[in-house]
Amino acid sequence: MTRQIYLDNAATTAMVPEAVEAMLPFFTKAYGNPSSLYELGQSAKSALTDARERVAHHLNANPADIYFTGGGTESDNWALKATMEAYASKGKHLITSSIEHHAIMHTAEWLEKQGYEVTKLPVDEQGLVSPADLKAALRPDTTLVSIIMANNEIGTIQPISELAAIAHAGGALFHTDAVQALTHIPVDVQALGVDMLSASGHKFHGPKGVGLLYIRKGLKTKSFIHGGAQERKRRAGTENVPGIIGLVAALDWSMERFDERATHALALRDHLIERVLAEVEHVRLNGDRLLRLPNNANFSFQFVEGESLLLTLEQKGILASSGSACASGSLDPSHVLLAIGLPHEIAHGSLRLSLGEETTLDDIDYTVEAIKGVVTMLRAMSPLYEDFLQGKKPISAVH
Predict the structure, then answer these.
(1) What is the pLDDT of residue 257?
(2) In the predicted model, is pLDDT for residue 397 greater than 70?
(3) What phi and psi values does residue 166 have, to the nearest 5 degrees?
(4) Which residue in 5, 125, 164, 288 has the fewest CB atoms around it within 10 Å?
(5) Quick one: pLDDT at residue 324?
(6) Distance CA 165, CA 169 (A)
């Protein structure tokens, strides 16, 4: 492999040097336990206080409402499990959507096994939740609504402020998984009107294994991990000080460059989408054309298996991900693609490309040419495509 183009930034991102450098002293010099009373521990505690204030600044939140966690998955689990338990006397009904990340989906399924009731709202063909559907689904016993802010696969951005207002009008609390959204689109907890919000450091050039949960003051969400007084007695365990410092340094770095990063990503994303749709036959763009993350493009190619497309592109140095779950051992395509109405045979031929700051126009053009060649090659080996060419099988609508 002579060239490597990384287009899987939705999966994880490379840490920026500023984050690595900020972390280093807390491994070797300022390594004290923040709960210790002597100076070495108190200096670590002071660093955590500063980190909390910086996160709060970027989210327009109160520092006391910011909690550090082990990542977005933990934050999502905490938001759902602890809130449903705390407000069980009000009701045991949770509302979410059919295109949530597995951290929400599987937590909701676990709650169902504990006796809670879950309503999964449908989405339209662009992946958007209907405010009217949410309003209709609310009940007197609805405790919490959790809707992803921007989908991790197709990039569609939900009308969170409108949905949160509807939930509140119906007497329910509102949580959003903003793991993919933070640093790519504006995230202001006051403007959004959310009660809780999850994020993860490794999605915006911070370290893995550290995230955050915003919990609005006044919520009686219960402690999630027991065993100590850390995180104001809600999340026990010695804080991951180096990780938290790295998360905040990466957040600072990303937000200081917010406008230029968005402009760069949008120009390349639109160029990529326009070329693929114009130059490849029988292809569909998944997700809303405009209401989508600036660095996300998700395509479905008919008569192509997603895992074959992914692995062949890797041979050409292009690292991406597939909308198909086949490569992970499942025979079922993505639940997100099925939820937006794609038939199995089209959903299986999907490819997600998520751009980063290092992505160039030349990278995009190289990728498009590679996609064209690989799709042509794979279709030449497809009996379904052969049947289509001979008129034995009508083509499904993909546009």
Answers:
(1) 98
(2) no
(3) -65, -45
(4) 125
(5) 43
(6) 6
239 closest CA partner among 14, 67, 18: 67
**Amino acid of residue 342:** L
pLDDT digits (tens, 9 = 90+) for 151-209: 999 999 999 999 999 999 999 999 999 999 999 999 999 999 999 999 999 999 999 99
d(CA 67, CA 89): 25
Rounded Cα distance, 9 and 64, in Å: 31
Residue 1 has pLDDT above 90, yes or no: no
Paired strand residues for 241: none
- Note whether 149 and 158 are within 8 A (CB): yes
What beta strand segments (E) does 147-259 contain?
173-177, 196-200, 211-215
Closest CA to 144 of 82, 208, 224: 82
Compute the mean pLDDT over every residue in the chain, rounded to the nearest whole number. 94
Q: Please, which pLDDT band fits residue 394 given cuts at 50, 70 and 90?
A: low
How far apart are the C-alpha atoms of 82 and 84, rounded to whole Å? 6
Instruction: Compute CA distances 116 → 25, 84, 94, 139, 162, whole Å.
Output: 45, 8, 7, 14, 25
CB 194, CB 219: distance < 8 Å: no
Nearest Cα to Cα of residue 185 among 157, 214, 160, 153:
157
State how far the Cα of 311 lies from the Cα of 291, in Å rounded to an integer. 29
Positive or negative torsion for Cα 108, 111, 113, 115: negative
Catalytic residues: 326
Res 115 pLDDT > 50: yes
Name the strands in the sheet holding 296-301, side by side, starting at the edge strand that comes first in the sequence: 283-285, 296-301, 350-354, 321-322
